[in-house]
Write a structure and sequence with these properties.
The structure is a single chain. The chain is built from 16 helices and 17 strands. With 448 residues, the chain is α/β, with parallel strands linked by helices. Strand 9 (220-225), helix 9 and strand 10 (242-246) form a beta-alpha-beta unit. Helix 1 packs parallel to helix 15. The two termini are 33 Å apart. The relative contact order is 0.20.
Length: 448
């Protein structure tokens, strides 16, 4: 049994639809292939579980796949909150450019402490002029914040972290073990993940995309957040199909609930930095003792080796670090950083994580040992940088009414419409039973 290692060959799925994101990089090609990876691995799982006599055909709609790399939900009669904090964005320094990511209050406070200025964009802009980009990046990170100086591709490839990431596999499989799959009589070729319990310990954005995808084929996804957690502007997009609960893992009673949930989980997906779960008392050995038969997939921002392995990061920051924003600047003939048109590193990594879960489940179904899968945004950036763009194609037109499903989704914030599904496995499209829900809106228990 061969575990997922890279993007699927184009001959393993059928492509429909037209349009392509305008970019220096093969963003639409990445969308097609990463979503197709989910379909190909799911088709193999259907065959491994004997839910069909052979692996069904996989179909990806290129237009819809591209649009799903953006925002999938359109509210009706109300507005989504802003995705970005007021001071998040790119700023010019003495010697270059830097990006601040300040959506979380403690990240915002860390940046302002270092800059020693008020929290208005004009004050931040003025303060930036007194700093060199690399030094400011280091100071903000040391203060517990997140920031990234813009580097060229050449600079990144010679940087110690860039070299470490380039040497890593796209999916790093480690610590193989025997996993006994729980019998799920409700699983069918149409809903092959029905009854699969997925414990989701992820935040913005790649991890939630992975678990949203698993929910779309029938998995019972339970996401656990700290009490009071929220992701304004994002959560309506990525809580689709999930139950959303809250637990404080520093409190004994909540820890007991969490351990009970983990013991009954079939899949654990988490996005904690290396060592973070260990700090909560849930290191790898403990997790395996509690849940010996749970498939595990995890991600981080900057890779699993090298000096930045434990650095916090987000898609927009990795684009700055890895030379993507600088290459986009040159391609666009701009004097400012030019990021990708969508957060493609997040979305592609999320779909690849879902595909890794499916690959591991198929291996277990065939009696093979199952390792833990590690992915990172930075390694996906290397994948994108080396991905060829297809022949000239028309630019992707903005979403139209016809791109959305006909039925209204009654989300936890109000009604809206969701983009039509981009993926079919056999005759069945990916589809969700539960609407998007607010953080902490559900009980911390498995259904049924």
């Amino acid at each position: 049994m061969t575990l997922l290692a890279t993007l699927p060959d184009t001959g393993t799925f059928r492509l429909t639809g037209t349009g392509r994101w305008s970019s220096a990089f093969a963003v639409t090609e990445l969308a097609n292939a990463s979503i197709a990876a989910v379909g190909v691995e799911l088709a193999q799982l259907i065959e491994a579980l004997n839910l069909a006599p052979s692996a069904p055909e996989v179909t990806v709609d290129q237009r819809l796949a591209s649009l799903w790399f953006g925002y999938s939900f359109r509210p009706e009669g109300w507005e989504l909150p802003s995705l970005w904090d007021a001071i998040a964005g790119v700023y010019e320094t003495q010697d270059g450019w830097i990006r601040l990511h300040t959506n979380l209050p403690h990240h915002r406070q860390a940046a302002l402490r270092v800059l020693e200025c008020a929290g208005e964009p004009s004050a931040v802009t003025a303060a930036m002029r007194h700093w060199q980009a690399d030094r400011l990046e280091s100071e903000i990170v040391a203060a517990g914040g997140v920031a990234a100086a813009m580097r060229s591709r050449a600079d990144w490839l010679t940087h110690p972290q860039g070299r470490a990431v380039a040497a890593e596999p796209l999916i790093q499989w480690t610590s193989p073990r025997t996993v006994r799959l729980r019998y799920r009589p409700q699983a069918t070729a149409a809903r092959p993940l029905a009854g699969l319990r997925v414990l989701d310990l992820t935040r913005v954005l790649a991890g939630p995309v992975s678990t949203r995808t698993l929910a779309g084929f029938g998995a019972d996804v339970l996401r656990i957040d700290p009490p009071g957690w929220d992701e304004p502007g994002v959560i309506t997009d990525i809580s689709l199909g999930k139950r959303m609960a809250a637990l404080d893992l520093t409190k004994g009673e909540d820890r007991l609930v969490f351990e009970t949930l983990l013991a009954d989980a079939d899949v654990l997906v988490h996005g904690y930095r290396p060592g973070a779960l260990d700090g909560l008392g849930y290191g790898a050995d403990t997790r395996r003792r509690i849940a010996p038969n749970a498939v595990e997939v995890t991600l981080d921002a900057y890779g699993w080796t090298g000096p930045w392995a434990d650095r916090r990061g987000f898609d927009s920051l990795v684009q700055m670090s890895a030379g993507i924003a600088d290459a986009g600047r040159a391609w666009a003939k701009s004097d400012k950083p030019a990021p990708l048109p969508v957060q493609a590193l997040d979305h592609a990594t999320g779909y690849l994580m879902a595909a890794a879960v499916l690959s591991a489940l198929a291996a277990a179904a065939r009696g093979a040992e199952v390792p833990t899968a590690h992915l990172s945004l930075a390694r996906t950036a290397e994948l994108l940088a080396g991905l060829p763009k297809s022949a000239d194609a028309p630019d992707l037109a903005p979403p139209a009414d016809s791109d959305y499903a006909e039925e209204t989704e009654q989300s936890g914030w109000g009604p809206g419409r969701r983009l039509a599904p981009p993926l079919r496995v056999g005759a069945e499209p990916i589809r969700w039973i539960l609407p998007a829900a607010r953080c902490g809106s559900g009980a911390a228990c498995w259904p049924g």
